[in-house]
Design goal:
The chain is mainly α and about 230 residues long. The protein is built from 9 helices and 3 strands; from the N terminus they run E-E-H-H-E-H-H-H-H-H-H-H. Among the domains are: about 90 residues, 3-Layer(aba) Sandwich (GIY-YIG endonuclease); about 70 residues, no CATH class.
């Protein structure tokens, strides 16, 4: 079962060299990092160079903190701001904003993923595969109203969270880091329009119509993510 949270990749020889990230499936994401490193295609050149020089045995892959999916990006950003990890090349969690690439680098990336070099070149999902993906999402506690995680899943989540409780000090730091941040007029307008579409009813509760649309939209997002993973 997928466990959401914050993870870290660190070096034994150089403990100050770290990489922080977040994922809805921490252990699955760590496997993807290792796969990319073994192929020599990791997006962090610093981490790839380190792997090439010191080897796989020098790296420690671990889960740092379990948290709700809705808090993943915010919590990851806190770790990036607090620790300034050496291996992370992007300053903002979940975004390529701030990453500077030269025209030559952009051209190489474009050529590397064009035509036959594209990972999806010549591939198509069959109708049967699409149906199986759809069926795999049905009944999932994240998408279906009234369903709950199994006892086995709850046990795994409990084990993952042990020893990773957020201290009051950490909570205060997160609060301070978010305090005073100004939102753009465009962002405020988007939030306003989004809230208008929620069809709030008396008592401040969201209507059943909105809840149903929200569940359908989230399920569609997850289906697309599964399709992308299956393509790779």
């Amino acid at each position: 079962m997928n466990i959401p949270g914050i993870y870290k990749i660190s070096s034994k020889i150089k403990p100050s060299r770290e990489y922080y990230g977040s994922s809805q499936d921490v252990f699955g994401r760590l496997k993807m990092h290792l796969r990319d490193l073994r192929r020599g295609k990791h997006h962090s050149l610093k981490l790839q160079y380190h792997y090439n020089k010191y080897g796989e045995a020098d790296l420690i892959f671990q889960m740092v903190l379990g948290c709700d999916i809705i808090d993943l990006i915010k919590t990851e950003q806190y770790f990036l701001d607090s620790y300034k990890p050496y291996f992370n090349i992007l300053p903002n969690a979940g975004s390529h904003l701030g990453a500077k690439r030269s025209p030559e680098s952009c051209k190489k990336c474009s050529l590397a993923k064009s035509g036959k070099n594209h990972h999806y070149f010549g591939k198509h999902l069959t109708d049967e595969h699409k149906r199986s993906l759809s069926e795999s999402l049905k009944g999932h506690p994240s998408y279906t109203k009234g369903t709950q995680a199994s006892d086995e899943t709850k046990k795994k989540m409990s084990i993952a969270h042990k020893g990773h409780l957020t201290s009051n000090e950490t909570k205060n730091k997160i609060s301070i880091s978010n305090n005073g941040k100004k939102r753009s007029k465009e962002f405020c307008q988007q939030c306003s329009e989004r809230n208008k579409s929620r069809l709030i009813i008396k008592g401040g509760k969201e209507s059943d119509e909105f809840k149903q649309k929200y569940r359908e939209r989230e399920a569609l997002k997850q289906l697309k993510k599964h399709e992308i993973l299956c393509m790779n």
